[in-house]
Amino acid sequence: MAKIAACKLTYFPIKGKGEPIRLAANYSGLPLEDVRVSREEFQAMREAKEIPFNQLPVAEFFDDEGRSVCKVAQTRAILRTVARASGDRMYSSDLGQAAQVDQFLDFEEDLFAAMRSSIFPGRIGMDEYKDDAEKEARRAHVAETVFTTKLELLDRALSASQTGWVAGTGEPSIADFALTASLGWIDSGIVDGVPQGFVVSKFPRVGTYLEKFAALEENKAYYASKET
Ligand SMILES: N[C@@H](CCC(=O)N[C@@H](CS)C(=O)NCC(=O)O)C(=O)O
Question: Which residues of the chain have pLDDT under 70?
Fold first, then answer.
C-alpha cells in the first residue's frame, strides 16, 4: 500500500476551504506545498480539465519517493486523506470514533450550506439577488434562523464533550479543523449581512471552542511563521 509522505494543495489565495487543510497538514507534520492560484490560472486549469469537479481545493498526494499516489478534490475527502496519512491522529482507526468525526464533518455542511449558497446563488440554480439589500436581508435571515438553530446543536455537542473537541476526541479532529475555519469565516464580518462576532456573542461556548483551537501550539506556530 502506498504511503503518503507529502501533499500539494491548490486553492485560491484566501483562507476559505483551503485553510482547514493547510492547518491540518501543519498540525500533523505532513509536508504541504501550498499553491495559491489566481482566478485566471484557475480558469486555465479548468479548461485543461485538470480539476475533477471544476472547483478548488484540489490536492495531490505523493509517496516518499515523490510519486503521485492520488489527486483528489472535495475538502472533506482531502482532510480525511491528510489525517489518514498521519496515522489517523486527527481521525481514528476505530470505526465508532471515526463515525463521530464524520457526522460532525457532515454537520458542518448542513450548518453552512444556506450561507454558502448565498455567495453564488446562480451556481446552484437559484436566482441571483436583485440588489445588495436583498442579498444582505437573505444572509441576515439565514443567520437568524439556520445558524441560531444549528448552533444550539453545536453548543450541546461541545457541552457534552469531555475534551472540548466536538467529537470527543483526545486531540482536535478534522471535524474541528473544518468547523473552526467556517465559524471563523462567518464571525470575521466579511460576509455582508452577518455582523462580526455574531456567533460568539450568541454562543459563548462556541467562542471558547474557537479560542481553544486558535491556542493550539501548532496553529500559533503556523500563523507566526506566516507573519515573518
Ligand atoms: N464541495 C466542494 C466545494 C468547493 C467550492 O465551492 N470551491 C469554490 C471555492 S471555495 C470554487 O472552486 N469556486 C469556483 C467556481 O465554482 O467557479 C468542497 O468542499 O471542496
Answer: 1, 227-228
